[in-house]
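Supplementary notes for students who missed Thursday's class. We covered one full example, reproduced here. Read the sequence, then the structure, then the short commentary at the end.
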Amino acid sequence: MLRDKKGARLAVSVASVLLLVAGVGLLALPVASNLWRDNRQDSLRQEFASPEHRQAYESRQIGTGESLTRIRIPAIGVDTIVVEGVTTSALRAGSGHYPETALPCETGNVAIAGHRTTYGKPFADLDKLGVGDTIELITPVGGCVYRLAEKPFVVAPTDVGVLDPTPNRTVTLTTCHPKGSDRQRLIVKAVWESDQVAT
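Structure (token representation):
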């Protein structure tokens, strides 16, 4: 019997404590990452509004991890600053611009990656978007509106063709799928509609 075996009871107790600590850690990670991201977003918004940053944007001198554009997706309540770069540290801001793709509102394919379950999870509800929903990109020098012409779709993580250049103005959003897994990628594509955007 277990009560007669001190070593077995100790092992069960230690295992229980370790499982409890692991459970608390799993619950605390999203909360901690969201708090970190909120603080980061505050400083990015200040940076984004500065005259120095506008100059850097105009001269295309935005470094990895610096604010590049503000993305708004009214249908799902997204309003966040996107940084330049998709490195692990850059994406702690919540979302980042693939540097090899077009700049916001310019000709070509603007591609942005975002978290779905941590770091503010700005792209948590991308799967709820539908044809006709809009994506607004605001830069230090202007803004534009893109509209979805197709529903979100899923691809393999190795399918990087969604990032390929386009001859017209498009935006591509990427995130992990399903939520909590990086097994696949959820893709949203939209086409340019206008250069007018409300601030």
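Commentary. Residues 90 and 145 are 25 Å apart (CA to CA). The chain has a mean pLDDT of 88. If anything here is unclear, bring it to office hours.
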